[in-house]
Amino acid sequence: MRDDVPAEWRKAVLVCAKCSKKVKGGFGKNGRTPLARALRALSNGRKGRKADFGVIETRCLKLCPKGRVVLIDGAEPGRWMLVKPGTPVEEVAGRLGLSPPPA
What average pLDDT does the structure give for the chain? Predict the structure, then answer.
């Protein structure tokens, strides 16, 4: 049996599912898309371990800022981001360093 499985992720991002639910989406074209789904849409069109980066929704992170969603960049776990609904997803991706991979 295998002890590990390869993944094509360059980065992993954790998103608080409770915060996302409280702001009722708030992202995307019409402002109704949850942040995790909007970030996944910026990937290479592949899902799971074959995507460019991973977006993982977690349980409550116990920070609970009013009107914001908490994100954790897996490469910088000591710095948590608070994202306001309506912020362009491309801007959030830029702050996380999720720019498209070189061709």
Answer: 92
User: DSSP of the chain, one letter per residue?
Assistant: --S------S-EEEEEHHHHHHTT--BSSSS-B-HHHHHHHTS-S--GGGSSSEEEEES--S---TT-EEEEETT-TT-EEEE-TT--HHHHHHHHT-PPPP-
Residue from 53, 49, 50 nearest 39 by CA: 53
pLDDT digits (tens, 9 = 90+) for 53-93: 999 999 999 999 999 999 999 999 999 999 999 999 999 99
Domains of the chain, by residue range, sit at 12-96
- The whole-angstrom separation of Cα 100 and Cα 53 is 10
